[in-house]
Design brief:
It comes from Cyanomargarita calcarea GSE-NOS-MK-12-04C. This is NAD-dependent epimerase/dehydratase family protein. By secondary structure, the chain is of the alpha/beta class. Helices cover about 35% and strands about 15% of the residues. It binds nicotinamide-adenine-dinucleotide.
Amino acid sequence: MGKSTVLVTGGCGFIGSHIVETLVQKSYRVRILDNLSTGKLENIASISKQDIDLLIGDVADLSTVEEAMQGCEYVFHEAAIASVPKSVNDPIGTGKVNYGGTLNVLEAARKHSIRRVVFAGSAAVYGSEPTLPKQESMAANPITPYGVDKLGSELMGHFYARTLGVEFVCLRYFNVFGLRQDPSSPYSGAISIFCDRIRQGLAPVIYGDGLQSRDFVHVSDVVKANLIVLEHPQATGKSFNVGCGVATSLLDITNILNDLTGQNLQAIHQEPRPGDIRHSLADNTTLRTLGWSPQISIRQGLAELLQTSVANLKVKK
Ligand SMILES: NC(=O)c1ccc[n+]([C@@H]2O[C@H](COP(=O)([O-])OP(=O)(O)OC[C@H]3O[C@@H](n4cnc5c(N)ncnc54)[C@H](O)[C@@H]3O)[C@@H](O)[C@H]2O)c1
């Protein structure tokens, strides 16, 4: 691997900071563009400052994005307002970042002859249609402004790739989990919130019966997917599901957490949340054809989270 400079938008966030860490380990130079709205400097605190340029700024501002891209060869575009509820409450404000920000990244990439843009898409583009597992060829039908902006972003990216010569790859992340995920965010999903409650000796709260399931993918496997598509000749112009292909229910997670910690916390059930999708599951065949496969199981990932975040709990492997 050479010493290319890579821009990571949203590099102070949960997923972005893991991408930055791996890029630095692989001797890339990294520039981060982040407005620290949900990202934190502590997420990149362990990474050597020599290898990172940090630009505090907004992806919704084209001149800022152009400045950030100067001298870069590749871009990972992770910056977004990653909250479905926020997008429902403020479709204009979130759209300026989630769609407008991507458009700025694509336009600046064209101007700066960036070699490839890798975009953080989402399984939210599939919407609530119940057929599972989701394949990339299935019709997208997002049901929230967040999902609409993610779909618009990827379609625009493919337009730039097809017509304007900007190489572009979309990774449709399913439910990503791992260290540094913020439990205070409503979008963080069950895992970081459950672990946070266990740290306080509290039982998990489940909306509904707990049989709703998600395809949880560990952040290190998401980073691997990003690195694989960065230069793979068959990746440009395509969208890929990034999920393990395993359905895990919220009750499964509660059971694994109880088993790992030797506790018997009974989940507290509350009214189901309107609009929550019942099941989500990826068909990851397309990404596997590029040599990717998930390495970390939900149980391993949960054990890691507990070990790191829950000080005096004994964790079984
Ligand atoms: N976490 C998941 O399960 C998941 C699933 C699907 C897609 N995604 C996508 O992955 C990406 C990363 O998500 P995450 O979970 O790490 O969330 P995160 O909130 O931790 O990271 C987002 C980062 O973007 C930054 N940001 C937000 N608005 C910005 C703006 N206007 N200008 C510059 N920076 C801005 C934030 O400060 C933060 O550092 C997002 O695009 C998100 O939509 C995440």
